[in-house]
Amino acid sequence: MSKQDVIELIGVVEETFPNAMFRVRITSDQAKNHELLCHLAGRMRVNRVRILPGDRVKVEMTPYDLKKGRIVYRFSADRPPVGPTAEPTP
Q: Domains in the chain, please, with CATH?
């Protein structure tokens, strides 16, 4: 398994915990309403990106543990997500 074998999903932060841990509810079609316990990626910690409940985030998870993930991107509130994991607009 290589670095490219991760699952990328879009979700909404439900709850925050100490040590940059978050409970995220997935909104992507691949795993709708699935809950993950996620930690903040190192690059986001270094750049001090703040995550609050209600923020839309991109989560990476491995196929080995489907209950844990890593937050790699926080979407800005004024811009919808783009790409293959984005939700279709009604």
A: 7-74 (2.40.50.140)
